[in-house]
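Example 9 (inverse folding). The structure is encoded as follows.
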């Protein structure tokens, strides 16, 4: 599938994306058992509540101080939800299509007595009412699961109350091109920035198909959904590093993450 290009906003050809989504969901469900095996360690991290990066908090701080109701799309292990509460959010609803991940996150929230609840669902659409969120938060490996970026942006907009914000902190679209050479930052010969997808060959979702969206496509989808772009920042730091890897691509010279803030008028 690498190298195939579809119109912006849609990667559906002959039902292929539906098959890929089913396969990806099975792969992610299996990978999410890591959240169960490492439950105690994740619980300790959740108690500290520091999973949000400094780049995220710099942008989100003023919004979180208003005690927003938050929807976290593709909430994963849920540590960010507890950190959002610690930083000021009134409550968080996480949505993830892994029942394993959502169940483990819900258990942690109950143990720590924080106002976080979880829904198991494939996105989009989120099974939540229109305008239920002051802040929609997502990222850190979320957009790669979306075969239709326009449908995702429209659904995120639907969830926002007037004046509400969408915040995305995500791997930079250049990241799939980097190899993990420890000495020289290199571009992989088997991938391209304008490819539509690639097969994940690393943890946590080895074998899954990841959809590739350029910065331009992401911004266009959000603006076309009716949101006003308030801020876009690119960062050299990755949001995730395997413990045993020190890649030259992470040495501060290349973009590894971006933060995007948009607002519903």
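The amino acid assigned to each position is listed next.
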């Amino acid at each position: 599938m690498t190298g195939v290009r579809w119109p912006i906003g849609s990667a559906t050809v002959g039902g292929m994306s539906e098959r890929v989504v089913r396969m990806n969901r099975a792969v992610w469900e299996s990978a999410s058992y890591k959240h169960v095996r490492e439950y105690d360690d994740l619980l300790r991290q959740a108690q500290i509540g520091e999973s949000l990066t400094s780049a995220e908090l710099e942008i989100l701080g003023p919004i979180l101080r208003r005690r927003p109701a938050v929807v976290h799309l593709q909430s994963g292990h849920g540590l960010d939800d507890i950190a959002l509460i610690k930083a000021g959010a009134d409550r968080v609803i996480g949505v993830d299509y892994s029942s394993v991940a959502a169940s483990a996150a819900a258990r942690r929230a109950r143990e720590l007595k924080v106002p976080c609840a979880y829904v198991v669902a494939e996105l989009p659409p989120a099974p939540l009412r229109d305008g239920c969120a002051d802040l929609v938060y997502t990222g850190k490996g979320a957009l790669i699961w979306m075969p239709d970026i326009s449908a995702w942006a429209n659904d995120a907009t639907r969830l926002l109350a007037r004046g509400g914000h969408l915040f995305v902190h995500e791997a930079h679209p250049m990241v799939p091109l980097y190899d993990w050479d420890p000495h020289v930052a290199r571009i992989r010969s088997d991938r391209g920035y304008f490819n539509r997808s690639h097969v994940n060959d690393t943890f946590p979702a080895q074998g899954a198909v990841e959809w590739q969206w350029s910065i331009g496509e992401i911004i266009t989808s959000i603006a076309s959904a009716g949101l006003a772009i308030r801020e876009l920042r690119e960062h050299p730091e990755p949001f995730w590093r395997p413990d045993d890897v020190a890649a030259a691509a992470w040495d501060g010279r290349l973009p590894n993450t971006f933060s995007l803030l948009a607002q519903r008028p």
